[in-house]
Structure to design on (74 residues):
């Protein structure tokens, strides 16, 4: 789930998990490295990808599609 509701608490929603990715990606990293470093916080790869997508849409992370590197956008 993207947002918390009666069943999904904030800490388990994609919105709540964004803080984990923002804390782990202060500098450029590959998406696979970021996934390996944060995998213990996510229930599945789908939840990880949804959270990365959410941060990208919100303009909080940038992606260099040629190198596959992501970084925080200030």
């Amino acid at each position: 789930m993207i947002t918390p509701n009666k069943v999904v608490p904030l800490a388990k929603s994609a919105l709540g998990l964004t803080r984990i990715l923002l804390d782990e990606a202060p500098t450029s990293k590959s998406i696979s490295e970021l996934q390996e470093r944060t995998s213990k916080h996510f229930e599945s790869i789908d939840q990880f990808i949804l959270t990365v997508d959410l941060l990208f849409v919100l303009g909080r992370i940038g992606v260099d599609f040629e190198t596959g590197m992501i970084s925080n956008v200030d």
